Amino acid sequence: MPALAELDKVSHTKVFADAIAESAGKTINGVVRVASDPVGTITGIPAGVGTDSTNVSALDPWLSLFYMTTGRNLAGMLTNDTQQISRLEALRLYTEGAAWFSFDDRLTGSFVEGKYADLAVLSDDYLTVADQRIRKIESVLTMLGGKVVHASGPFSNLLKN
Question: Which of 55, 105, 109, 155 could covalently link to 100 via disulfide, CB atoms 3.0 to 4.6 Å apart?
Answer without folding.
Answer: 105
